[in-house]
Amino acid sequence: MDIRELDASHRDSVIALWEACGLTRPWNDPVSDFNRAVTGTSSAVLGAFEGEVLVGTVMVGDDGHRGWVYYLASAPERHGDGIGRGLMAAAEEWLRDRGVPKVELMVRASNSEVIGFYEHLGYSAEDVVVMARRL
Predict the structure, then answer these.
(1) Cα angle value 75/52/9 (rounded, 5°)
(2) What predicted TM-score, i.e. pTM, was given to this entire model?
(3) Which residue, among 72, 77, 53, 71, has the nearest Cα to 121 in the 3D structure?
(4) Where would a tag sit more exposed on the chain, N or C end, judged by fewer CB atoms within 10 A?
(5) At residue 43, does pLDDT exceed 90?
(6) What is the DSSP string of 61-95?
(7) Short-list 113, 108, 48, CA closest to 74
């Protein structure tokens, strides 16, 4: 598996993967999310490839205080093959290389399988409330 930073030429295959994995939501525009991440100076979308086939992604960014991870995805037929684990290691390395001391991510409380995945990687729930407002 080869993990590398993606660019605009990968957009359609990335969005298709996110949709196949059920990561997109009507209130979040994945095209805008992808475009912002690949053109920003403090963010990236990393892709996992086997040959020329995209099998996974993770969006990573540095907000100036901590790092964030979004859109971790592996091809549905490849779940359990270590793609997610490899992408999270790459995202953490991307942040470490920029001197970011902590990484955060959000998981829907009802998504117990994904929570278990992150717990297995050493992540733990924090005593915070996420608040939001649409702009």
Answers:
(1) 90
(2) 0.93
(3) 72
(4) C
(5) yes
(6) EE-SSSEEEEEEEE-GGGTTSSHHHHHHHHHHHHH
(7) 48
The terminus-to-terminus CA distance of the chain in angstroms comes to 38
Q: Are 97 and 133 in contact (CB under 8 A)?
A: no
Which two structure tokens, joined as six digits, stand for 85?
Answer: 């684990």
Whether pLDDT at 28 is above 90: no
Specify burial of residue 24 (Cβ count, 10 A radius: 0-12, 13-18, 19+): middle
The answer to whether 73 and 24 have CB atoms below 8 angstroms apart is: no
User: What mean pLDDT is predicted for residues 22-41?
Assistant: 93
Distance, CA of 135 to CA of 87 (rounded, Å): 30
At residue 79, the pLDDT reads 84
